[in-house]
Amino acid sequence: MQRSELRKQLRLARQQLTRAQQDKAAEAVLQRLCDLPLLSHATYAACYLPNDGEVSLTPFIKHCWQSKATSHPMRCNTTLPVLHPVCKGHLLFLGYDAQTHMVKNTFAIPEPELACQNIVPMRHHSVIFMPLVGFDSQGNRLGMGGGFYDRTLASVREAHSRPALVGIAHDCQHVDRLPVQSWDVPLDAIVTPTQTITFNQK
Questions:
Q1: At 148, which helix (H) or strand (E)?
Q2: What class does CATH assign to 3-198?
């Protein structure tokens, strides 16, 4: 099946999930993320705000904010992707907390207002949580088709020291085998409401 047709089918599957199913999925993913060993010592975690039926990371983000204000062992800072204003098709990651001023980007997705002092370099991140349209059991990811994450991560995909790349998805987004392109950046792990799959990419 062509990537475009597969993308259409998988997007429809997640869009058809009810609000109750989405909320349940978000809470289940929160519990699985909290169990990830890498988060016990994480510095920054790049998250995302849900769009088009994606699994929401909002419960996880709020958990991180609350944990920072207590003696909880997981005291991870959160960032969000922002469309790069100069390098078209690339992303920047900016710090994100309850006081962050948000604006809508060209895709009508809220993102932190661009401020250079709030940019968090890639090398400071422990993990990047990535939304996706589809995934397979080999750690391949099918995105929305814009290539933003692939281009942004191309320079670090072979680096010895880089953030862990973790895909977040509903179980209905799993396929046996994705058609892979040379520029696709593979994942180190995938987290769904019912499973955590790890790979030896890193």
A1: helix 148-153
A2: alpha beta
